[in-house]
């Protein structure tokens, strides 16, 4: 809907303040000489002639359409009486009321004040000079493209202190001129991909969606099959991570009632430390028939005990989190801690164990581990190795 240029009719006066009989009103796009239509009434059905010819009393029906205008008033002989630029039309006065889509690079003009510009392809929006825009000029951009687009300050002018701004897919930003440069008054984070989280990127940089992280990186997965005597992890344990998590899932052994033990290697698994007093451990064990824990410990033995009395039926199984603490350090003794639970068909059926252990014979960089039953083989289960992020 158009609106009237003044409260009543448009009226032109000459330099003496007298009605401009037969005066000529030329109407252009703001900032230029491209003719821009005005209308005889609010319906916008009938455009005025351009120039609009004023009556004997200097009046004319001049209704402005959308966008901004440059108005040039002349007398009947063509002498310029007055010129006004950036005269706000109908929808340009409303914030975000003028919405346009762009598939190629575009330079913002004065008539884009308060406009909403949408990118549908890879492009650059170049802002108009701050001197032209003036303090308080605002324009909003949205990126509907699948990749980032660029907002470019005019010449040496900046956007939040930077020469350009990268607008990510689905992001929306409103830029406001402060008279010499451009500042963002609001920036949306856009639409995140499933599994992504909104992440702060520091002062002066918009928040963005980034892949969610638990802090754990899966390094390897091993499945027990073929009734092996042991399960070994001989790669992936190094200085990349400070700590490692080994998750044992549903471990079943071949011989009922046997414990599960751990040994370490510092030569990639070629040999495993097994001296008579190499290891120390303490493990607290309880079951569903007791309200107290029974401790098992050793100040010098050939292994670290992880659990006691595992089951050997398909309904049994032990699950445990085993933490290897800074195993790649050659300056400290190897340390681990663990917590697990197990089911055993023989009553009492549920067992719980947690404890700590260390290799006390020497300091060395551990790069492999061996998990095995006290007697007999392993039947089934899955073991996953994770690296733990340092920060």
Q: Key terms for this structure?
A:
single chain, 391 residues, mainly beta, Tailspike Protein, Chain, Jelly Rolls, 3 domains, eight-stranded antiparallel beta sheet, five-stranded mixed beta sheet, 1 helix, 1% helix, 47% strand
Question: Tell me about the biggest sheet?
Answer: 8 strands, antiparallel
Q: What is the end-to-end distance? A: 58 Å
Estimated helix fraction: under 10%
CATH class of the largest domain: Mainly Beta
The number of helices is 1
Structural category is mainly beta
Report strand order across the widest sheet.
21-32-23-28-29-30-25-26
Can you give a write-up of this model?
The protein is mainly beta and about 400 residues long. The protein has three domains: about 5-90, Phage P22 tailspike-like, N-terminal domain (Tailspike Protein, Chain), CATH 2.170.14.10; about 95-210, Sandwich (Jelly Rolls), CATH 2.60.120; about 215-390, Sandwich (Jelly Rolls), CATH 2.60.120. The chain is about 0% helix and about 45% strand. It contains one helix and 32 strands. The chain has one helix at about 130-135; strands at about 5, 10, 25-30, 40, 50-55, 60, 65, 70-75, 80-90, 100, 105, 115-120, 125, 140-145, 150, 165, 170-175, 180-185, 195-200, 210, 215-225, 230-235, 245-255, 260-265, 280-285, 295-300, 305-310, 315-325, 335-345, 350-360, 370-375, 380-390. The strands form eight sheets. An eight-stranded antiparallel β-sheet has the order 21-32-23-28-29-30-25-26, with no helix packed on it. A five-stranded mixed β-sheet has the order 10-12-14-17-18, with no helix packed on it. A hairpin with a 6-residue loop joins β25 and β26 (about 295-300). The longest helix is centred in the middle third of the chain and has 4 residues, at about 130-135. It is rod-shaped. It starts with a strand and ends with a strand. The mean pLDDT is about 90.
